[in-house]
Design brief:
- The protein has 402 residues and is mainly alpha-helical.
- It has 3 domains: 125 residues, Ferritin, core subunit, four-helix bundle (Ferritin, Up-down Bundle); 148 residues, no CATH class; 57 residues, no CATH class.
- The longest helix is centred in the middle third of the chain and has 47 residues.
Length: 402
């Protein structure tokens, strides 16, 4: 489960050393791997406890299977310790997950949401280790564990969704739409980021220069270009990473289907059980799909990542929509300064920007489940607060520089 402690830039004493990194001692390497083992064992106990508490047979079975998967991870780390010549710890780490606090007012649903969040934190922690380690044997374990932990988080999301309440619906819709990364969502959030960032710059510079159009335009246009490039490159890299994760998962599932078809079928059957399909029927469906490897891979990857190949974002489209929309949003606050100067330009910029804040907030309701009015008002209030604070800061900086 959660990988804790101080991570290091190397997991193998004799690995090639990169500039700026430190090769750690053999003892510290063993401590890191032992910590991973310890917390995977904590995961074994956590899911076993959830299974013990669960009264619905189907869900109990799922928790039991998740516990076994965590045990598989622990065994992998135990073998790595043995290969390093280190003993397996006799006791587990005292740093545990939130499963110890089962008497939560939110009941099982709150526990599931909390554990799901921790699983995603585990993914991030293991990814950090993967980036920093030079040891290929450890890195191979991390690759497998990362994908499994991501699957666990997805399983918990499905279980959490079974309550059918509105808060869960909002949570799932938000995650689903963020995961697909549609260009419409990229564009709306791009306008939002550009508008917010440059409105703050315009307000601050206006406060410092009493609305001097020359300085406001210089700062605003420079900020607009920087924000657009930053958003575009970020959107491109995010879409590219999404594709790489998808391709890595397809490769992993293809390899698993080839080397261990029974385990691959069992894993797919688990996802069908989450949808309410009886265990035996879920196994039959998985068995049927495994006869066509291509279809099996598409189905398994779609279930794990909640994505299909057709649903992946195009990196170029994401970059363009993100950059252009950010530029549009960033351009709005500086428009009045092309035609006006001084306090009137500042007032006009504030009015135009707040109207734009409300419009962008209302537009966000297209990709969320909130009402357009509340979303728009929230954006307007946030924009107003940002403008006031930065304007006051700008006045103060102007006085210092005077």
């Amino acid at each position: 489960m959660r990988a804790i402690g101080k991570y290091h830039s190397s997991m193998h004493e004799n690995s090639p050393k990169r500039p700026g990194t430190t090769v750690i001692s053999k003892e510290r390497q063993e401590e890191i791997v032992a910590a991973n083992w310890s917390l995977e064992m904590d995961g074994v106990a956590m899911y076993a406890a959830l299974a013990e508490r669960e009264s619905i047979p189907e869900r109990k079975s799922i928790f039991q299977k998740l516990s076994l998967l965590e045990k598989k991870h622990a065994d992998m780390w135990a073998k790595r310790l043995a290969d390093m010549g280190a003993p397996i710890p006799t006791t587990r780490s005292k740093t545990v997950h939130s499963w110890k606090d089962f008497d939560s007012a939110g009941g099982m649903q709150e526990i599931l949401l909390r554990v799901e969040s921790e699983e995603r934190h585990d993914v991030a922690s293991y990814l950090k280790q993967m980036r920093e380690t030079h040891d290929e044997e450890t890195k191979a374990i991390l690759r497998e564990v990362v994908l499994d932990e991501f699957t666990h988080a997805h399983v918990l999301t499905r279980l959490h969704a079974q309550s059918g309440d509105r808060s869960t619906l909002e949570y799932l819709v938000h995650r689903q739409r963020q995961g697909t990364g549609s260009w419409i969502g990229d564009a709306i959030y791009g306008v939002n980021d550009g508008l917010g960032a440059i409105f703050g710059i315009v307000s601050g510079v206006s406060g410092a220069t009493l609305g001097n159009s020359k300085f406001v335009l210089l700062a605003g246009i420079a900020g607009m270009v920087a924000s657009a490039l930053s958003m575009g490159s970020g959107a491109y890299l995010a879409a590219k990473s999404e594709q790489e994760i998808f391709e890595a998962e397809v490769h992993r599932e293809r390899q698993m289907l080839t080397e261990n078809p029974a385990a691959a079928r069992e894993e797919l059957a688990l996802f069908y059980e989450l949808k309410g399909v009886p265990t035996q029927d879920a196994k039959k469906i998985a068995e049927y799909l495994s006869a066509d490897p291509d279809q099996f891979l598409k189905t398994m990857t779609a279930e794990k990542l909640n994505l299909t190949e057709d649903g992946l974002s195009n990196p170029i489209t994401s970059a363009l929509s993100g950059a252009l929309s950010t530029a549009v949003g960033a351009f709005i606050p500086i428009i009045p300064f092309f035609f006006m100067h001084g306090i009137p330009a500042v007032i006009a910029a504030a009015i135009v920007s707040l109207i734009a804040h409300f419009a962008v907030g209302a537009a966000k309701s297209l990709v969320t489940v909130r009402s357009w009015w509340s979303s728009g008002m929230e954006m307007t209030l946030v924009g107003a607060a940002e403008g006031i604070v930065t304007y006051i800061v700008g006045i103060g900086l102007g006085q210092i520089g005077a």
